[in-house]
Design brief:
alpha+beta, Beta-Lactamase, 14 helices
Length: 559
Protein backbone atom coordinates (compact mmCIF):
# COMPACT_ATOMS: atom_id res chain seq x y z
CA UNK A 1 0.00 0.00 0.00
CA UNK A 2 1.70 3.17 -1.26
CA UNK A 3 -1.11 5.44 -0.25
CA UNK A 4 -1.51 6.57 -3.90
CA UNK A 5 -4.92 6.80 -5.47
CA UNK A 6 -5.29 4.30 -8.39
CA UNK A 7 -7.69 5.46 -11.03
CA UNK A 8 -9.66 2.76 -12.85
CA UNK A 9 -8.73 2.01 -16.53
CA UNK A 10 -10.89 0.55 -19.30
CA UNK A 11 -10.59 -2.97 -20.70
CA UNK A 12 -8.75 -2.13 -24.01
CA UNK A 13 -6.10 -0.15 -22.18
CA UNK A 14 -5.63 -2.98 -19.70
CA UNK A 15 -5.07 -5.50 -22.61
CA UNK A 16 -2.55 -3.24 -24.33
CA UNK A 17 -0.50 -2.90 -21.13
CA UNK A 18 -0.55 -6.70 -20.60
CA UNK A 19 0.87 -7.36 -24.15
CA UNK A 20 3.66 -4.82 -23.55
CA UNK A 21 4.58 -6.43 -20.25
CA UNK A 22 4.54 -9.97 -21.82
CA UNK A 23 6.98 -8.89 -24.56
CA UNK A 24 9.28 -7.45 -21.95
CA UNK A 25 9.23 -10.71 -19.98
CA UNK A 26 10.01 -12.82 -23.09
CA UNK A 27 12.96 -10.60 -23.90
CA UNK A 28 14.33 -11.21 -20.46
CA UNK A 29 14.04 -15.02 -20.75
CA UNK A 30 17.10 -16.89 -21.97
CA UNK A 31 16.02 -19.86 -23.96
CA UNK A 32 16.52 -22.69 -23.97
CA UNK A 33 16.39 -23.04 -20.17
CA UNK A 34 18.11 -25.76 -18.28
CA UNK A 35 16.13 -28.37 -16.43
CA UNK A 36 16.93 -26.66 -13.14
CA UNK A 37 15.98 -23.30 -14.58
CA UNK A 38 12.68 -24.74 -15.80
CA UNK A 39 11.96 -26.19 -12.39
CA UNK A 40 12.64 -22.82 -10.69
CA UNK A 41 10.51 -21.00 -13.22
CA UNK A 42 7.58 -23.38 -12.59
CA UNK A 43 8.01 -22.99 -8.86
CA UNK A 44 8.06 -19.18 -9.16
CA UNK A 45 4.93 -19.31 -11.33
CA UNK A 46 3.14 -21.50 -8.80
CA UNK A 47 4.12 -19.15 -5.96
CA UNK A 48 2.98 -16.18 -8.01
CA UNK A 49 -0.30 -17.95 -8.74
CA UNK A 50 -0.88 -18.52 -5.02
CA UNK A 51 -0.07 -14.86 -4.34
CA UNK A 52 -2.58 -13.86 -7.00
CA UNK A 53 -5.20 -16.13 -5.45
CA UNK A 54 -4.52 -14.65 -2.00
CA UNK A 55 -4.75 -11.12 -3.40
CA UNK A 56 -7.99 -12.09 -5.09
CA UNK A 57 -9.39 -13.39 -1.80
CA UNK A 58 -8.31 -10.21 -0.04
CA UNK A 59 -9.92 -8.11 -2.76
CA UNK A 60 -13.14 -10.15 -2.53
CA UNK A 61 -13.18 -9.80 1.24
CA UNK A 62 -12.45 -6.07 0.99
CA UNK A 63 -15.28 -5.71 -1.53
CA UNK A 64 -17.70 -7.51 0.81
CA UNK A 65 -16.57 -5.34 3.74
CA UNK A 66 -16.99 -2.22 1.60
CA UNK A 67 -20.45 -3.35 0.52
CA UNK A 68 -21.39 -4.10 4.17
CA UNK A 69 -20.04 -0.74 5.29
CA UNK A 70 -21.95 0.97 2.49
CA UNK A 71 -25.16 -0.87 3.51
CA UNK A 72 -24.58 0.06 7.17
CA UNK A 73 -23.96 3.68 6.19
CA UNK A 74 -27.07 3.66 4.00
CA UNK A 75 -29.13 2.18 6.86
CA UNK A 76 -27.71 4.68 9.30
CA UNK A 77 -28.37 7.50 6.87
CA UNK A 78 -31.87 6.44 5.89
CA UNK A 79 -33.15 5.24 9.25
CA UNK A 80 -31.42 7.74 11.51
CA UNK A 81 -33.90 9.47 13.89
CA UNK A 82 -32.62 12.78 12.53
CA UNK A 83 -33.54 14.11 9.12
CA UNK A 84 -30.50 14.49 6.82
CA UNK A 85 -30.72 16.55 3.64
CA UNK A 86 -28.31 17.91 1.03
CA UNK A 87 -29.16 21.39 -0.26
CA UNK A 88 -27.57 23.73 -2.72
CA UNK A 89 -27.07 27.43 -2.03
CA UNK A 90 -30.62 28.19 -3.24
CA UNK A 91 -32.16 25.77 -0.74
CA UNK A 92 -33.06 23.13 -3.36
CA UNK A 93 -33.12 19.57 -2.03
CA UNK A 94 -30.60 17.21 -3.73
CA UNK A 95 -30.79 14.33 -1.24
CA UNK A 96 -32.85 13.38 1.78
CA UNK A 97 -33.10 10.40 4.13
CA UNK A 98 -36.29 8.66 5.21
CA UNK A 99 -36.54 10.55 8.52
CA UNK A 100 -36.27 13.84 6.66
CA UNK A 101 -39.04 12.80 4.27
CA UNK A 102 -41.20 11.74 7.22
CA UNK A 103 -40.68 15.11 8.92
CA UNK A 104 -41.65 16.96 5.72
CA UNK A 105 -44.60 14.63 5.19
CA UNK A 106 -43.75 13.96 1.50
CA UNK A 107 -42.48 10.82 -0.25
CA UNK A 108 -38.67 10.95 -0.59
CA UNK A 109 -38.58 10.65 -4.37
CA UNK A 110 -40.91 13.64 -4.71
CA UNK A 111 -38.71 15.89 -2.57
CA UNK A 112 -35.69 15.96 -4.88
CA UNK A 113 -35.54 19.28 -6.68
CA UNK A 114 -38.04 21.03 -4.41
CA UNK A 115 -37.18 24.07 -2.32
CA UNK A 116 -36.81 23.31 1.40
CA UNK A 117 -38.23 26.72 2.38
CA UNK A 118 -41.66 25.67 1.09
CA UNK A 119 -41.96 23.32 4.04
CA UNK A 120 -41.32 26.09 6.59
CA UNK A 121 -44.10 28.31 7.97
CA UNK A 122 -44.36 31.73 6.34
CA UNK A 123 -43.39 33.43 9.64
CA UNK A 124 -40.06 31.50 9.80
CA UNK A 125 -38.97 31.57 6.16
CA UNK A 126 -36.87 34.73 6.59
CA UNK A 127 -35.08 33.04 9.52
CA UNK A 128 -34.19 30.07 7.26
CA UNK A 129 -33.11 32.31 4.37
CA UNK A 130 -30.71 34.23 6.64
CA UNK A 131 -29.49 30.94 8.09
CA UNK A 132 -28.70 29.51 4.61
CA UNK A 133 -26.79 32.66 3.65
CA UNK A 134 -24.62 32.32 6.77
CA UNK A 135 -23.94 28.63 6.02
CA UNK A 136 -22.49 29.31 2.56
CA UNK A 137 -20.74 32.55 3.49
CA UNK A 138 -18.97 31.41 6.67
CA UNK A 139 -18.29 27.73 5.85
CA UNK A 140 -18.76 27.10 9.59
CA UNK A 141 -21.42 25.10 11.37
CA UNK A 142 -24.62 27.10 11.81
CA UNK A 143 -27.94 26.34 13.51
CA UNK A 144 -31.45 27.80 13.75
CA UNK A 145 -34.92 26.84 14.94
CA UNK A 146 -37.98 27.03 12.69
CA UNK A 147 -41.48 25.59 12.50
CA UNK A 148 -42.42 23.19 9.73
CA UNK A 149 -45.85 23.53 8.13
CA UNK A 150 -48.26 21.17 9.86
CA UNK A 151 -50.14 18.54 7.92
CA UNK A 152 -51.29 17.18 11.26
CA UNK A 153 -53.15 18.82 14.12
CA UNK A 154 -50.03 20.33 15.64
CA UNK A 155 -46.89 21.92 14.10
CA UNK A 156 -43.37 20.45 14.12
CA UNK A 157 -40.70 22.55 15.79
CA UNK A 158 -37.27 21.64 14.40
CA UNK A 159 -33.66 22.59 14.97
CA UNK A 160 -31.52 22.77 11.79
CA UNK A 161 -27.72 22.36 11.88
CA UNK A 162 -25.69 22.74 8.68
CA UNK A 163 -22.17 23.12 7.28
CA UNK A 164 -21.22 23.80 3.67
CA UNK A 165 -18.71 21.82 1.59
CA UNK A 166 -15.32 23.32 0.79
CA UNK A 167 -16.48 24.20 -2.70
CA UNK A 168 -19.48 25.98 -1.14
CA UNK A 169 -21.87 24.51 -3.70
CA UNK A 170 -23.78 22.19 -1.40
CA UNK A 171 -24.41 21.89 2.32
CA UNK A 172 -25.52 19.01 4.41
CA UNK A 173 -28.17 19.77 7.04
CA UNK A 174 -29.44 17.83 10.03
CA UNK A 175 -33.10 18.44 10.92
CA UNK A 176 -33.88 17.52 14.56
CA UNK A 177 -37.49 17.31 15.73
CA UNK A 178 -37.62 19.36 18.95
CA UNK A 179 -41.42 19.45 19.17
CA UNK A 180 -41.54 17.54 22.45
CA UNK A 181 -38.78 19.70 23.87
CA UNK A 182 -40.50 22.90 22.76
CA UNK A 183 -43.85 21.69 24.08
CA UNK A 184 -42.14 20.73 27.32
CA UNK A 185 -40.46 24.17 27.46
CA UNK A 186 -43.75 25.93 26.79
CA UNK A 187 -45.44 23.75 29.38
CA UNK A 188 -42.62 24.57 31.79
CA UNK A 189 -43.04 28.29 31.02
CA UNK A 190 -46.81 28.01 31.52
CA UNK A 191 -46.22 26.15 34.75
CA UNK A 192 -43.68 28.73 35.90
CA UNK A 193 -46.07 31.55 34.93
CA UNK A 194 -48.94 29.81 36.74
CA UNK A 195 -46.66 29.29 39.73
CA UNK A 196 -45.61 32.94 39.61
CA UNK A 197 -49.23 34.07 39.48
CA UNK A 198 -50.09 31.62 42.25
CA UNK A 199 -47.26 32.99 44.37
CA UNK A 200 -48.43 36.55 43.67
CA UNK A 201 -51.99 35.56 44.57
CA UNK A 202 -50.79 33.82 47.72
CA UNK A 203 -48.66 36.84 48.59
CA UNK A 204 -51.64 39.18 48.13
CA UNK A 205 -53.87 36.91 50.18
CA UNK A 206 -51.11 36.45 52.76
CA UNK A 207 -50.73 40.21 53.16
CA UNK A 208 -54.46 41.04 52.95
CA UNK A 209 -55.58 38.64 55.71
CA UNK A 210 -56.47 40.80 58.74
CA UNK A 211 -55.16 38.16 61.15
CA UNK A 212 -51.48 38.05 62.15
CA UNK A 213 -49.65 35.29 60.20
CA UNK A 214 -46.08 34.16 60.79
CA UNK A 215 -43.97 31.30 59.41
CA UNK A 216 -41.11 30.00 61.60
CA UNK A 217 -38.72 27.11 61.13
CA UNK A 218 -39.38 24.34 63.61
CA UNK A 219 -35.72 23.76 64.46
CA UNK A 220 -34.99 27.21 65.94
CA UNK A 221 -38.33 29.00 65.81
CA UNK A 222 -36.94 31.81 63.65
CA UNK A 223 -39.35 33.81 61.53
CA UNK A 224 -38.92 33.38 57.78
CA UNK A 225 -41.90 35.57 56.85
CA UNK A 226 -44.79 37.56 58.37
CA UNK A 227 -47.76 39.27 56.76
CA UNK A 228 -48.65 42.95 56.66
CA UNK A 229 -51.17 42.67 59.52
CA UNK A 230 -48.38 41.40 61.80
CA UNK A 231 -46.20 44.40 60.98
CA UNK A 232 -49.05 46.89 61.47
CA UNK A 233 -50.27 45.35 64.73
CA UNK A 234 -46.85 44.76 66.29
CA UNK A 235 -45.26 47.97 65.00
CA UNK A 236 -42.15 46.32 63.49
CA UNK A 237 -40.51 46.50 60.07
CA UNK A 238 -40.20 43.21 58.19
CA UNK A 239 -36.39 43.09 58.49
CA UNK A 240 -36.73 43.56 62.25
CA UNK A 241 -38.71 40.31 62.55
CA UNK A 242 -37.40 37.98 59.83
CA UNK A 243 -34.53 35.89 61.17
CA UNK A 244 -35.44 36.53 64.81
CA UNK A 245 -37.29 34.35 67.31
CA UNK A 246 -40.35 35.37 69.33
CA UNK A 247 -38.19 35.15 72.45
CA UNK A 248 -35.54 37.47 71.00
CA UNK A 249 -38.25 39.96 70.06
CA UNK A 250 -39.97 39.63 73.44
CA UNK A 251 -43.37 39.07 71.85
CA UNK A 252 -44.80 37.00 74.70
CA UNK A 253 -46.00 38.55 77.91
CA UNK A 254 -45.46 35.27 79.80
CA UNK A 255 -42.32 33.31 78.80
CA UNK A 256 -43.47 30.21 80.66
CA UNK A 257 -46.75 30.25 78.74
CA UNK A 258 -44.76 30.45 75.46
CA UNK A 259 -42.59 27.46 76.40
CA UNK A 260 -45.61 25.37 77.43
CA UNK A 261 -47.67 26.29 74.37
CA UNK A 262 -44.79 25.58 71.93
CA UNK A 263 -44.06 22.24 73.60
CA UNK A 264 -47.69 21.15 73.28
CA UNK A 265 -47.84 22.47 69.72
CA UNK A 266 -44.80 20.47 68.60
CA UNK A 267 -46.12 17.32 70.26
CA UNK A 268 -49.66 17.58 68.86
CA UNK A 269 -48.82 19.15 65.48
CA UNK A 270 -51.56 21.77 65.67
CA UNK A 271 -53.46 24.16 67.94
CA UNK A 272 -56.75 25.99 67.58
CA UNK A 273 -57.97 29.28 69.08
CA UNK A 274 -55.80 29.28 72.19
CA UNK A 275 -56.07 32.61 73.99
CA UNK A 276 -52.65 34.24 74.37
CA UNK A 277 -51.33 37.61 75.46
CA UNK A 278 -48.50 39.17 73.48
CA UNK A 279 -46.62 42.46 73.32
CA UNK A 280 -46.27 45.00 70.53
CA UNK A 281 -43.01 46.88 69.97
CA UNK A 282 -44.51 49.79 71.92
CA UNK A 283 -45.02 47.52 74.94
CA UNK A 284 -48.80 47.47 74.57
CA UNK A 285 -50.29 44.16 75.75
CA UNK A 286 -52.61 42.55 73.21
CA UNK A 287 -54.93 39.54 73.39
CA UNK A 288 -55.24 37.07 70.54
CA UNK A 289 -56.64 33.68 69.59
CA UNK A 290 -53.71 31.59 68.37
CA UNK A 291 -53.98 28.71 65.87
CA UNK A 292 -51.19 26.81 64.13
CA UNK A 293 -50.17 23.89 61.93
CA UNK A 294 -46.87 22.15 61.18
CA UNK A 295 -46.11 22.31 57.45
CA UNK A 296 -43.32 21.08 55.13
CA UNK A 297 -41.53 23.56 52.87
CA UNK A 298 -38.43 22.61 50.84
CA UNK A 299 -38.03 19.39 52.83
CA UNK A 300 -37.95 21.29 56.12
CA UNK A 301 -40.55 21.54 58.89
CA UNK A 302 -42.08 24.93 59.64
CA UNK A 303 -44.68 26.33 61.99
CA UNK A 304 -47.54 28.28 60.42
CA UNK A 305 -48.94 30.53 63.17
CA UNK A 306 -52.15 32.58 62.84
CA UNK A 307 -53.26 34.98 65.58
CA UNK A 308 -56.57 36.86 65.52
CA UNK A 309 -56.27 40.10 67.47
CA UNK A 310 -59.26 40.14 69.82
CA UNK A 311 -57.97 42.88 72.11
CA UNK A 312 -60.87 45.23 71.42
CA UNK A 313 -63.39 42.40 71.48
CA UNK A 314 -61.96 41.16 74.76
CA UNK A 315 -62.18 44.64 76.23
CA UNK A 316 -65.74 44.92 74.93
CA UNK A 317 -66.63 41.53 76.44
CA UNK A 318 -65.16 42.58 79.75
CA UNK A 319 -67.10 45.85 79.57
CA UNK A 320 -70.27 43.93 78.66
CA UNK A 321 -69.69 41.58 81.58
CA UNK A 322 -69.16 44.54 83.88
CA UNK A 323 -72.36 46.13 82.58
CA UNK A 324 -74.21 42.81 82.90
CA UNK A 325 -73.11 42.54 86.50
CA UNK A 326 -74.32 46.08 87.09
CA UNK A 327 -77.51 45.33 85.14
CA UNK A 328 -78.18 42.19 87.17
CA UNK A 329 -77.66 44.21 90.32
CA UNK A 330 -80.03 46.90 89.08
CA UNK A 331 -82.54 44.25 87.98
CA UNK A 332 -82.40 42.74 91.44
CA UNK A 333 -82.88 46.21 92.91
CA UNK A 334 -85.74 46.79 90.49
CA UNK A 335 -87.36 43.52 91.54
CA UNK A 336 -87.15 44.67 95.12
CA UNK A 337 -88.61 48.04 94.16
CA UNK A 338 -91.39 46.36 92.18
CA UNK A 339 -92.26 44.14 95.10
CA UNK A 340 -92.27 47.15 97.38
CA UNK A 341 -94.30 49.10 94.87
CA UNK A 342 -96.83 46.28 94.55
CA UNK A 343 -97.09 46.08 98.31
CA UNK A 344 -97.45 49.86 98.41
CA UNK A 345 -100.15 49.75 95.70
CA UNK A 346 -102.12 47.16 97.59
CA UNK A 347 -101.72 49.16 100.79
CA UNK A 348 -102.83 52.35 99.11
CA UNK A 349 -105.69 50.56 97.38
CA UNK A 350 -106.76 49.07 100.69
CA UNK A 351 -106.52 52.43 102.44
CA UNK A 352 -108.46 54.15 99.63
CA UNK A 353 -111.11 51.47 99.37
CA UNK A 354 -111.95 51.56 103.08
CA UNK A 355 -113.22 55.16 103.10
CA UNK A 356 -114.84 54.60 99.68
CA UNK A 357 -116.69 51.58 101.04
CA UNK A 358 -117.79 53.66 104.03
CA UNK A 359 -118.99 56.45 101.73
CA UNK A 360 -120.86 54.05 99.44
CA UNK A 361 -122.40 52.28 102.48
CA UNK A 362 -123.63 55.59 103.92
CA UNK A 363 -125.01 56.55 100.52
CA UNK A 364 -126.92 53.28 100.38
CA UNK A 365 -128.19 53.79 103.94
CA UNK A 366 -129.33 57.33 103.18
CA UNK A 367 -131.19 56.13 100.12
CA UNK A 368 -132.88 53.35 102.05
CA UNK A 369 -133.64 55.31 105.26
CA UNK A 370 -134.18 58.88 104.11
CA UNK A 371 -135.09 58.61 100.45
CA UNK A 372 -138.65 59.85 100.99
CA UNK A 373 -137.56 62.80 103.11
CA UNK A 374 -135.03 64.02 100.47
CA UNK A 375 -136.03 66.25 97.67
CA UNK A 376 -135.07 65.36 94.12
CA UNK A 377 -131.81 67.33 93.94
CA UNK A 378 -130.60 65.71 97.19
CA UNK A 379 -131.45 62.26 95.93
CA UNK A 380 -129.48 63.05 92.76
CA UNK A 381 -126.47 64.19 94.78
CA UNK A 382 -126.52 61.01 96.85
CA UNK A 383 -126.67 58.90 93.69
CA UNK A 384 -123.75 60.83 92.16
CA UNK A 385 -121.69 60.26 95.30
CA UNK A 386 -122.46 56.56 95.17
CA UNK A 387 -121.62 56.28 91.43
CA UNK A 388 -118.37 58.18 92.06
CA UNK A 389 -117.29 55.63 94.68
CA UNK A 390 -117.95 52.82 92.18
CA UNK A 391 -115.90 54.60 89.48
CA UNK A 392 -113.12 55.17 92.00
CA UNK A 393 -113.06 51.46 92.87
CA UNK A 394 -112.86 50.53 89.20
CA UNK A 395 -110.02 53.02 88.68
CA UNK A 396 -108.10 51.58 91.64
CA UNK A 397 -108.53 48.07 90.20
CA UNK A 398 -107.35 49.26 86.78
CA UNK A 399 -104.25 50.85 88.31
CA UNK A 400 -103.44 47.67 90.21
CA UNK A 401 -103.78 45.59 87.04
CA UNK A 402 -101.61 48.06 85.11
CA UNK A 403 -98.84 47.90 87.70
CA UNK A 404 -98.86 44.08 87.71
CA UNK A 405 -97.96 44.00 83.99
CA UNK A 406 -94.42 45.21 84.66
CA UNK A 407 -93.33 42.12 86.59
CA UNK A 408 -95.84 39.35 85.91
CA UNK A 409 -93.97 36.33 84.44
CA UNK A 410 -95.05 35.43 80.92
CA UNK A 411 -96.53 31.98 80.40
CA UNK A 412 -95.69 31.33 76.72
CA UNK A 413 -97.88 28.88 74.78
CA UNK A 414 -99.62 28.49 71.43
CA UNK A 415 -102.59 30.84 71.23
CA UNK A 416 -105.35 30.80 68.61
CA UNK A 417 -106.05 34.53 68.23
CA UNK A 418 -108.91 33.85 65.81
CA UNK A 419 -110.89 31.85 68.39
CA UNK A 420 -109.96 34.32 71.12
CA UNK A 421 -111.27 37.24 69.01
CA UNK A 422 -114.55 35.38 68.42
CA UNK A 423 -114.93 34.82 72.18
CA UNK A 424 -114.30 38.52 72.90
CA UNK A 425 -116.82 39.48 70.21
CA UNK A 426 -119.42 37.18 71.79
CA UNK A 427 -118.83 38.72 75.24
CA UNK A 428 -119.23 42.24 73.83
CA UNK A 429 -122.50 41.34 72.13
CA UNK A 430 -123.87 39.96 75.39
CA UNK A 431 -123.17 43.19 77.27
CA UNK A 432 -125.14 45.38 74.88
CA UNK A 433 -127.39 43.34 72.63
CA UNK A 434 -129.00 46.46 71.17
CA UNK A 435 -125.65 47.50 69.61
CA UNK A 436 -125.66 45.76 66.26
CA UNK A 437 -122.10 45.11 64.99
CA UNK A 438 -120.91 42.89 62.14
CA UNK A 439 -117.68 41.12 63.10
CA UNK A 440 -115.26 39.92 60.42
CA UNK A 441 -112.65 37.65 62.00
CA UNK A 442 -109.94 35.88 59.96
CA UNK A 443 -109.39 32.19 60.71
CA UNK A 444 -106.19 30.30 61.54
CA UNK A 445 -104.26 33.13 63.20
CA UNK A 446 -102.11 31.26 65.72
CA UNK A 447 -99.17 32.75 67.70
CA UNK A 448 -96.97 31.99 70.68
CA UNK A 449 -97.58 34.16 73.72
CA UNK A 450 -99.23 34.56 77.13
CA UNK A 451 -102.89 33.69 76.55
CA UNK A 452 -104.22 35.74 79.47
CA UNK A 453 -102.34 38.89 78.49
CA UNK A 454 -103.18 38.53 74.80
CA UNK A 455 -106.86 38.28 75.79
CA UNK A 456 -106.42 41.62 77.60
CA UNK A 457 -104.99 43.07 74.35
CA UNK A 458 -107.92 41.92 72.20
CA UNK A 459 -110.48 42.85 74.87
CA UNK A 460 -109.15 46.41 75.08
CA UNK A 461 -108.69 47.03 71.34
CA UNK A 462 -111.95 45.36 70.28
CA UNK A 463 -113.70 46.95 73.27
CA UNK A 464 -112.58 50.38 72.06
CA UNK A 465 -113.87 49.59 68.58
CA UNK A 466 -117.17 48.48 70.13
CA UNK A 467 -117.49 51.72 72.12
CA UNK A 468 -116.58 54.08 69.29
CA UNK A 469 -118.92 52.49 66.74
CA UNK A 470 -122.00 52.87 68.96
CA UNK A 471 -123.34 55.69 66.83
CA UNK A 472 -123.14 53.65 63.60
CA UNK A 473 -126.27 51.94 62.36
CA UNK A 474 -124.14 49.45 60.39
CA UNK A 475 -121.05 49.04 62.51
CA UNK A 476 -118.24 46.75 61.30
CA UNK A 477 -115.29 45.48 63.34
CA UNK A 478 -112.64 43.44 61.52
CA UNK A 479 -109.77 41.36 62.94
CA UNK A 480 -107.10 39.99 60.60
CA UNK A 481 -103.43 39.82 59.65
CA UNK A 482 -101.30 41.06 56.78
CA UNK A 483 -97.57 41.17 56.09
CA UNK A 484 -96.04 44.63 56.45
CA UNK A 485 -92.32 45.12 55.76
CA UNK A 486 -91.86 41.35 55.77
CA UNK A 487 -93.44 40.89 59.21
CA UNK A 488 -96.84 39.40 60.10
CA UNK A 489 -98.91 42.28 61.49
CA UNK A 490 -102.29 41.82 63.20
CA UNK A 491 -104.94 44.53 63.02
CA UNK A 492 -108.36 45.53 64.41
CA UNK A 493 -110.26 47.88 62.11
CA UNK A 494 -113.58 49.68 62.75
CA UNK A 495 -115.76 52.26 61.05
CA UNK A 496 -116.38 54.31 64.20
CA UNK A 497 -115.76 57.96 65.02
CA UNK A 498 -112.02 57.68 64.31
CA UNK A 499 -109.37 60.22 65.28
CA UNK A 500 -106.81 62.51 63.68
CA UNK A 501 -103.49 60.83 62.83
CA UNK A 502 -101.72 63.71 64.55
CA UNK A 503 -103.14 62.37 67.84
CA UNK A 504 -102.13 58.73 67.18
CA UNK A 505 -99.14 58.91 69.54
CA UNK A 506 -101.20 60.22 72.46
CA UNK A 507 -103.71 57.40 72.72
CA UNK A 508 -101.20 55.01 74.33
CA UNK A 509 -100.35 57.45 77.14
CA UNK A 510 -102.03 56.49 80.45
CA UNK A 511 -105.13 58.56 81.30
CA UNK A 512 -104.89 60.36 77.95
CA UNK A 513 -108.25 60.63 76.18
CA UNK A 514 -108.75 62.24 72.80
CA UNK A 515 -111.33 64.93 72.01
CA UNK A 516 -114.75 63.38 71.31
CA UNK A 517 -114.15 60.40 73.58
CA UNK A 518 -115.76 61.95 76.64
CA UNK A 519 -119.11 60.40 75.87
CA UNK A 520 -117.64 56.91 76.08
CA UNK A 521 -116.88 55.36 79.39
CA UNK A 522 -113.30 54.54 80.40
CA UNK A 523 -110.27 55.88 82.25
CA UNK A 524 -107.78 56.14 79.35
CA UNK A 525 -105.62 53.32 80.65
CA UNK A 526 -106.71 50.41 78.40
CA UNK A 527 -104.47 51.23 75.40
CA UNK A 528 -101.52 51.97 77.71
CA UNK A 529 -102.05 48.44 79.06
CA UNK A 530 -102.09 47.08 75.47
CA UNK A 531 -98.81 48.79 74.63
CA UNK A 532 -97.11 47.40 77.74
CA UNK A 533 -98.29 43.83 77.01
CA UNK A 534 -97.20 43.98 73.35
CA UNK A 535 -93.75 45.30 74.32
CA UNK A 536 -93.36 42.47 76.81
CA UNK A 537 -93.99 40.11 73.89
CA UNK A 538 -91.18 41.79 71.91
CA UNK A 539 -93.56 43.48 69.49
CA UNK A 540 -94.88 46.93 68.71
CA UNK A 541 -98.29 48.60 68.45
CA UNK A 542 -99.47 51.68 66.57
CA UNK A 543 -102.72 53.15 65.28
CA UNK A 544 -104.07 54.98 62.25
CA UNK A 545 -107.32 56.92 62.06
CA UNK A 546 -109.42 59.46 60.27
CA UNK A 547 -112.16 61.54 61.93
CA UNK A 548 -115.56 60.13 61.05
CA UNK A 549 -114.04 57.25 59.04
CA UNK A 550 -112.87 54.87 61.74
CA UNK A 551 -109.58 53.62 63.14
CA UNK A 552 -107.15 50.70 62.70
CA UNK A 553 -104.89 49.35 65.43
CA UNK A 554 -101.84 47.31 64.36
CA UNK A 555 -99.64 45.12 66.54
CA UNK A 556 -96.80 42.62 66.03
CA UNK A 557 -95.54 39.79 68.22
CA UNK A 558 -92.05 38.35 68.35
CA UNK A 559 -92.18 34.70 67.25
Amino acid sequence: MTGKIVLPIDREERRRLAIVRLRTKKAELRLPLSKEGTRKLVHELEVHQIELEMQNEELFRARNEAEAALKKYTDLYDFAPIGYLTLDNTGTIHAVNLSGATLLGVERSKLIGRHFGLFITVEDRLIFSNFLDKVFSSLEKQSCEVTLTAKESHPHFVQIEAIAEAAAKECRIAVIDITERRVAEEERKRTEEALRKSEQKFSRIFDSVPALIGICNLREGRFVDVNQASLQTLGYQRDEIVGKTARELGLWEDEEERVRLMRDFKEQGSMTNLEVRFKAKSGKILTGLCSGELIDLDEERYMLILVRDVTERKAAEEEIERLNVALRARAADLEDVNRELEAFNYTVAHDLRNPLNVISSYCQAIKEMCNEQLDKPCRHYVQEIYDGTLRMNRLIEALLNFSRLTHTELNMERVDLSNMAREVAGELQKTEAEHRVKFRIASGLVVTGDANLLRVVLTNIMGNAWKYTFQREEAVIEFGMKVIAGQPTFFVRDNGIGFANADAGKIFIPFQRLPGAEECRGFGIGLATVERIIKRHGGSVYAEGMPGKGATFYFTLQQ
